[in-house]
Amino acid sequence: MAGMVEIENAEKTYDGGFQALKGVSLSIEEGEILALLGPNGAGKTTLISTICGITMPTGGSIRVGGHDVVRDFRAARSLVGLVPQELTLEPFETVWSAVRFSRGLFGAKRDDAYLDELLRRLSLYDKKHSQLQELSGGMKRRVLIAKALSHDPKVLFLDEPTAGVDVELRRDMWDIVAKLKETGVTIILTTHYIEEAEAMADRIGVISAGELLLVEKTTDLMARLGRKELRIALSAPIETVPEGLSDYDLRLEDEGETLIYTYDTQAERTGIARLIGSLSEAGLSIADVETTQSSLEEIFVGLVRKEDDEGDAA
Ligand SMILES: Nc1ncnc2c1ncn2[C@@H]1O[C@H](COP(=O)(O)OP(=O)(O)OP(=O)(O)O)[C@@H](O)[C@H]1O
Ligand SMILES: [Mg+2]
Q1: What CATH number corresponds to the domain at position 166?
Q2: What is the residue range of 42's domain?
């Protein structure tokens, strides 16, 4: 079955000649949440804009719900809603007129019952007649989401929905996204926060310099690339790692009280058993051990850095 969004070899070269997308291919299933991660200038907003029909791709093809975003622009556009990266709202407009106007822009039939329900879902109903300038930052974000959903789109794009918001509001946004998923909406979001992608997304795509470096299930990505740390609390602190342990990837922390061993979870042998033996040979006694999985953040930074190194070598 074809995905809700089908991107084949999409390219975008801006008028000045800058190539922001270098042949991106991606298929997004109906009801899926995909997070696009990438550094500033990677091409996330450009990719979203080409799918939404805001900028024209200069190569390849993009279909939403089977409609080509160039040839069949109107049909494709009616299926998508976008919460843009830049927040723009009219201060004196009311919540109600903002969402009604957005719906009208799509030429959708007036449906006050749907909009009332939407405002309720986003906990905005009691602010229905408030001016936008009277709302808190978090409520304004919700209004932007309500506007993007005003014409009942099948695919919602959230371009950095939580940039610059506090922790509480970010969690709030995660809840909203989870609830939207239950209604069957396909969601594509961009973020710089790896923990956010991890918390919300079914799959994660990493984009850098106009190329999609990988797309993988969030859980698979964690497992495949995850490195683990074994933290060994020593009974007595040491000043340096003993000579006999120089073969191991070890470092000392907590003023010599904790020895940290990094290993690859996918390796045939983790080396833990041998390490424990070597520790006792070196006369060290263990008070406690603990393992921690490296975060997706470290994985991501590693990936993008590797790409840079390869670029330099070329
Ligand atoms: N209208 C434009 N004309 C020319 N170049 C552009 C235009 N819009 C974006 N670019 C360039 O394309 C590249 C990708 O930009 P884009 O906004 O897609 O990045 P991004 O991944 O969304 O970054 P950020 O995380 O900062 O939002 C950048 O180098 C940017 O300068
Ligand atoms: Mg952007």
Answers
A1: 3.40.50.300
A2: 5-223
Give distance in angstroms: CA of 238 to centre of ligand 2: 48
Question: 195, 223, 251: which is the final residue of a domain?
Answer: 223
Residue with tokens 């070598």: 313
**45-50 contact pairs (CB < 8 A, 24+):** 45/85, 45/159, 45/190, 46/12, 46/20, 46/21, 46/210, 47/7, 47/10, 47/12, 47/21, 47/207, 48/82, 48/157, 48/159, 48/188, 48/190, 50/10, 50/12, 50/21
> From the CB of 56, is ligand 1 less than 6 Å away?
no
Asked if the model's pLDDT at residue 298 lies above 70, the reply is no
pLDDT tens-digit map of 190-205? 988 777 888 899 999 9
Closest ligand to residue 206's CA:
1
pLDDT category, 314, cuts 50, 70, 90? very low
Q: pLDDT tens-digit profile of 236-277? A: 999 999 988 988 889 999 999 999 998 877 677 888 889 999
pLDDT mean across residues, the chain: 88
Q: Is the CB of 101 under 6 A from ligand 1?
A: no
What's the gap in Å between 312 CA and the centre of ligand 1?
21
Q: 246 CB less than 6 Å from ligand 1?
A: no
* Mean pLDDT score, 128-155: 91
State how far Cα 17 lies from the chain centre. Answer: 28
Determine which residue's CA is closest to atom 10 belonging to ligand 1: 20
In the chain, what percentage of residues exceed pLDDT 70? 90
Report how many domains make up the chain: 2
Indicate whether 41 and 131 sit together in one domain: yes
Mutating to test ligand 1, I would choose from 19, 24, 45 the residue with most ligand atoms within 8 A of its C-beta, which is 45
CA of 1 to the centre of ligand 2 (A): 30
Let me know how many helices (H) and strands (E) the chain has, helices first: 10, 14
Give nearest CA residue, ligand 1 atom 27: 40
